[in-house]
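Researcher: Please translate sequence to structure tokens.
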Amino acid sequence: MSFVPHSISLQLLLVSTLQFLLLLLSLPLLSASLQNDQQIERISRFQQYLRINTAHPSPDYSSAVNFLTNFSLSIPSLQYQILHFASNKPVLIFTWPGSDSTLPSILLNSHLDSVPAEPSKWVHPPFSAHYSSDGKIFARGAQDDKCIGVQYLEAIKSLELEKDFWPLRTVHVSFVPEEEIGGFDGMAKFANSEEFKKLNIGFVLDEGQASPGDEYRVFYADRSPWHLVIKAVGMPGHGSRMYDNSAMENLMKSMEVITKFREVQFDLVKCGLAANSEVISVNPVFLNAGIPSPTGFVMNMQPSEAAAGFDVRLPPTVDPDALRRRIAEEWAPAWRNMSFDITEKGALRDHMGRPLMTPTNDSNPWWSVFEQAVAVAGGKLAKPEILSSTTDARFMRERGLPTFGFSPMKNIPILLHDHNEFLVDTVYLEGIKVYESIIKSLSSFTGSSSSSSSS
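Model: Translation complete:
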């Protein structure tokens, strides 16, 4: 038997003690607001999901699906299926069976993909899920919208294993691909499938946005995007000559008319008469004209063609036919040698011809249930809004399903698609509690025995 000299033993003891003290000191820095092992585990799982790079153009859907299905194994009653409506673009569906399968089910939706990030413009690598000492978790997708996907599952796990709660209505949780590039190979195909129809969905929650204030935001409609390209043609010629209705002149006249329309719409927002999402936004995104040369463009030649592209966003309250007439008569009139092309990136009307809006009043029985559930969790909803951008919710509303956009994030800046996107740990954990209340209330709701439709 060998013995360690007393002096060395003492040194080892001092080193071990010092290491232990350093560990204790480091814990508050890493998780200053976390109070127990469960919270630490939840934050750790969120970080694991955030570290999976599902950003376009090459989202790692396989790793994301593997992570989520592995997590679901800790929830005994949860079932899942993986569908493919396009190659290498999985739709993952979890199902928490309800006790009454005749009642329409609840769908909680989020998307797997995220927009690209520019690492050089971030303070921490965008897929490191860096956890700062003040509780911020930095990652692409922290707000948009990996948070809600894992929160859904965490809430169901808590309800089943800790609260011993069992739903009356079946609850489905879907993770879909391609939302950030239009959703046409994701939710659009899923929502029009026989598999979707078999789910017998009566109410849907999809993503919302963070709130800088102390009230949660809720969205009852999205704006629909149009990609508008206006083209002009005219007499080509020497750069010194003056021509009537040259291509560039015609395009400039068009730009002037569109700019005036934009100013009128924007003035309504600036004066507080309308929210940004309640007006038609028209933003130029490209100009294409001129004759290229090795040093730039030929400066003494007037081009015979010119084009401009615009990102147009329409709220569902707008008459799309009226805007088409305006474009044809004022923005790109044929008599001025102009033409236009509109690519509609989503519908403005549902299958019954009604605007894609979900009522937030007594005509929609789900509204009061949802609002009360948020209140029970200690939260308060702000005035319902139209979302200025576009989400997969429009595909559900198009089918006539009442759908709200909601992400339980308050007192935090809106950072979706921004550099240094982050979510605070306490906000994330509070969101789980909010979803527990929402899922419990929605799945226990005994009214509206058939699938509702928007009006």
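Researcher: Any highlights?
Model: Residues 6-30 form the longest helix (25 residues).
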